[in-house]
Design goal:
The structure holds 2 protein chains of 2 kinds. Chain A is mainly alpha-helical. Chain A has 2 domains: about 35 residues, no CATH class; about 200 residues, no CATH class. Chain A contains 13 helices and 2 strands; from the N terminus they run αββαααααααααααα. Chain B is mainly alpha-helical. Chains A and B meet through helix 9 and helix 10 of A and helix 1 and helix 2 of B.
């Protein structure tokens, strides 16, 4: 029996030993791109029904992202006085801040897709607050994170139009090195690529404003580092913000961007990202291993993509998607 | 304004070297009770590392 028939109008397919599959097409269909148009439409309908279910579940529990952000930002900000007063040891502050900084990208990411609240609704304020607060430990304004991420969704793996393309690398070691090089002040900086993409490809007033905000936020952040160091709190600010920020940036670029889109070649709906096992495991990758589900349906909250994937897996397999990792 | 910001960002690694790296080195030495060599003060030692390192990053465009 062909895969798509097993999964098409699932309940309608029956077999008998002598006459084969009842309701089967006159000729066998292949997997993936060779599928009949009607089968593809049916698969898409099944996909969308599952996606809608998890979107609705996400809408019921979206407040959790707001609570997580407020709690995380509160803990992160309190680490400054707590380390200055020697209440929290510096090593512990480093670990906690690193986790909050990295997880902050996930909550900000929900806000980038407006899953917490759409513009024009009452929840929009909480959506924007979640995005703004979550990005502070990474020292980036939410505006640039949103505009670059939405552009990435439009043109994933496009060397010219995808702001994340500089994260591409042939292996993990190269990706780590590139994540470092991309954050350097000179010619290797990813900032040059992002600036060009925003000015030439996106070219909206929001994109131009986001670039200005980024420059001002990074200037203010650096002056804060210098001010704290000159006031005698260099170690505290280094362990609470400077070093965790660096670790968070490398973590997000390598494990949330490079690994999810490796080998950065596919540009189609089903091959621009993948289902994979993360090098750092499910917890530290924040369950981003089901990234294909996110690119197919960005409105499903990140932490529900795993459940959505397992429900959608037979449909994806019928399309020829490689689902062998999970 | 934009030109001023560009120039400021160009010299930022050097400012960061003397304004952050140098005090960080000095305060870390004090935390671990390590004396600076040749009778120097810890901040002078920190500046000896932070200033050229920041200058290198500014000119080369990379910290390492």
């Amino acid at each position: 029996m062909t895969e798509q028939l097993r999964l098409g109008p699932v309940a309608a397919v029956e077999t008998t030993p002598d006459i084969g599959v009842r309701g089967a097409p006159a000729f066998p269909l292949g997997r993936g791109s060779g599928l009949d148009r009607h089968v593809l439409l049916d698969l898409q309908r099944q996909e969308r029904a599952i996606a809608r279910k998890y979107y609705e579940i996400g809408q019921m529990i979206r407040w959790k992202y707001v609570v997580a952000t407020l709690a995380g930002f509160g803990v992160w900000a309190s680490l400054f006085p707590l380390t200055m007063l020697d209440v929290v040891p510096l090593w512990a502050a480093l670990v906690v801040s690193y986790l909050i900084t990295t997880a902050g990208y996930i909550t900000a990411h929900e806000a980038m897709h407006s899953t917490i609240g759409r513009k024009g609704t009452k929840a929009w304020f909480w959506n924007e607050l979640t995005g703004q607060l979550s990005m502070i430990p990474l020292m980036f304004p939410f505006s640039i994170a949103r505009v670059t991420h939405l552009q990435h969704h439009r043109f994933p793996n496009d060397p010219v139009r995808d702001p994340d393309y500089p994260d591409s690398a042939p292996n993990l070691r190269a990706a780590l090195w590139k994540a470092w090089l991309n954050r350097q002040p000179g010619k290797t900086a990813q900032a040059h690529h992002i600036k060009r993409v925003l000015l030439e490809e996106v070219a909206t007033p929001e994109a131009k404003a986001a670039l200005k905000q980024t420059a001002l936020i990074q200037l203010a952040g650096t002056l804060f580092f210098i001010g704290m160091a000159l006031a005698g709190y260099a170690m505290e600010v280094a362990m609470v913000w400077w070093l965790p920020r660096w670790l968070g940036l490398i973590h997000t670029h390598v494990f949330f961007s490079w690994e999810t889109h490796y080998p950065h070649e596919g540009r189609g709906r089903y091959d621009n990202t993948r289902i994979f096992r993360s090098s750092v495991g499910s917890f530290l990758s924040m369950w981003i291993e089901f990234h294909l589900i996110h690119h197919l349906y960005p409105n499903i909250p990140m932490h529900l993509t795993k459940q959505a994937y397992f429900e959608m897996k037979p449909v994806l397999e019928a399309r020829g998607v490689d689902c062998s990792a999970h | 304004m934009e030109l001023a910001l560009k120039k400021l960002f160009y010299v930022m690694p050097f400012l960061f070297g003397i304004g952050f790296i140098a005090p960080l080195i000095a305060q870390t030495m004090a935390y671990w009770d390590i004396a600076a060599p040749l009778g120097m003060s810890r901040i002078a030692f920190g500046l000896m590392i932070g200033a050229p390192w920041g200058l290198y990053a500014m000119l080369r465009g990379r910290w390492i």
